[in-house]
Amino acid sequence: MTEAMPERTESASHVRWDVLCSLAVMAALAYLCRNSISVVQKTIREDLQLTEAQLGFILGPAFFWTYALAQIPSSRFGERLGARLSLPIFACAWSFAIAVFGYTNWFPLLLGIWMVTGLAQAGAFPVAARTISVWFPKSERASASGVLTASMSLGAAVSAGVTGILVLTFRWQTVFLMYAIPGLIWACFFGSWFRNRPEYQPGLNSAELQQISEGNDHAMSPQIADATPWLSLLTSWPMGLICGQQFCRAAAQAFFISWFPTFLQESRHITVVKSGFLSVLPHMSIAAACLTGGALADFISRKTGGSGWSRKGLAVASLMLSTTLIGAAYFVQDATSAVVVISIGVYCAALAGPGAYAVTMDMGGRHVGSVFATMNMIGNFGAGMLPWLIPALRSQIQSSPTLLAVCANDSWNAVMALIAALHFLAAVCWLLLPLRGNVFEYSLVPPK
Q: Angle between the 83-100 and 107-135 helix axes, to the nearest 10 degrees?
């Protein structure tokens, strides 16, 4: 009697990770373009005959407020069109903007061009978040989100280093044209290769489709979502807590891309060159934390069999530790040692980032894009507000001898206390956040 041969189990393909890599490249290119102006802003002001206030308005409100306000409508546009079409459109739009920016010196037109950049990039990341929610099971979403957020910091770091090198050989207008090309190439590739739903993606086999579908209520649903019940979303108290933690974390993080070098120069009395070198450390900490935070969250999720410790537990612990470390930096006299302590604190705070992305996917139901966009919009309001608030806070401290004495005669100490307090408030928001069901179930006005 012939013995039956055992059936061979089909090995799962890994196409979802290819999708994630393509989204990570998009994110890096977006941040490469958005951060390029700040590297050569002095030369731009001279060549385009702009005042410091005019360029500051372009870099600040023109981008960040447009980016924040456009989160919901542009993400909704992206959801209706689907990622396959919308993400290439967004990439082409911001590539066009960076390419033509240097070829006019009329301030209103420059303002409009950079607002287009904010508008295009506003829709890209909510659509990317929804794509991850469709393509990855719940147990892998934090890791995938970590890769996406780390690529943003990597793009910003590359922009700072490469732009400074390229302008030694090329005019900055030429460098900006060069930066537009990769985005256009990516748009052509992604639009021709990607499919909105995993089951239609070439190269993805049934074993991987089963992996994606297990415990993933988004995988088999259409990527084009139903109409969002906005009243229910905006009256949901868990949504308020999700937005609250994002506002606090984004506002605190904005300090390190705006006033941190000045803080080091004035409070720690170091040179501009050394402050620039030390300012790299918080950015690298953020990128590293995004990768390790996502992997750690998914590891905890697999070990505990739930999202409580991997989302809330990790976020609360890391943000409280960050609060302690940033506060402790006050007692460290050496500038380099202080920045190392602060950077470790920034690393801890950034560990909560992938979990925040993953929570919008876990609790967004069929409306992940809208939930993510709302969170990201509020976060960018915080990021735009803090750089504007810091000079006012320091001025208030310096005008009051009593307050200045409390701050040990250095108003920057009050700023660092504010950064620590923001991380503490973010931890409180996480602590109060329920993780069961979706945000609409907790609304004061339940959806119909």
A: 150
Contact yes or no for 355/316 (Cβ under 8 A) = no
**What's the longest Cα–Cα distance across the chain?**
98
Rounded to the nearest 10°, the torsion over CA 114, 118, 120, 123 is 180
Distances (CA, A) of 67 to 75, 122, 378: 11, 5, 11
Q: 71: which 2 tokens?
A: 């989160």
> Domain residues of the chain, as ranges?
16-225, 230-448
In 3D space, the residue among 267, 271, 260 whose CA is nearest the CA of residue 346 turns out to be 260
Q: CA dist 422 to 65, 188, 211, 353, Å?
A: 21, 41, 38, 14
Tokens of 103: 């070829």
Domains 16-225 and 230-448 share a fold: yes
| pLDDT at residue 220 in the model | 46
Distance between first and last Cα of the chain: 64
* Confidence at residue 305, expressed as pLDDT on a 0 to 100 scale: 67
Q: Which CATH superfamily is domain 16-225 in?
A: MFS general substrate transporter like domains (1.20.1250.20)
Pick the closest to residue 68 from 24, 131, 132, 115 (CA basis).
Answer: 115
* Mean pLDDT (the chain, rounded): 85
Q: Quick one: tokens of 49?
A: 């005959």
3-state secondary structure of 338: helix
For the stretch 1-17, pLDDT in tens is 455 545 555 688 889 99
Rounded Cα distance between 91 and 370, Å, is 20
- Distance separating alpha carbons of residues 37 and 241, to the nearest angstrom: 34
At 258-309, the pLDDT tens digits run 778 778 888 888 876 677 677 778 878 888 888 888 778 778 777 776 666 6
pLDDT at 299: 81
Beta bridge partners of 443: 236
CA geometry: angle 297, 431, 381, nearest 5 deg:
85
Single-letter code of the amino acid located at 430: W
Could you tell me the CA-to-CA distances from 171 to 102, 103, 163, 176, 322 in Å, in that order?
10, 12, 11, 9, 41
How far apart CA 368 and CA 162 sit, in angstroms, is 35
What's residue 217's pLDDT?
57
> Is the domain defined by 230-448 classed in CATH 1.20.1250.20?
yes
Structure tokens at 292: 């390790």
* Angle between the N-to-C axes of helices 368-398 and 237-255, in degrees from 0 to 180, rounded to the nearest 10: 50
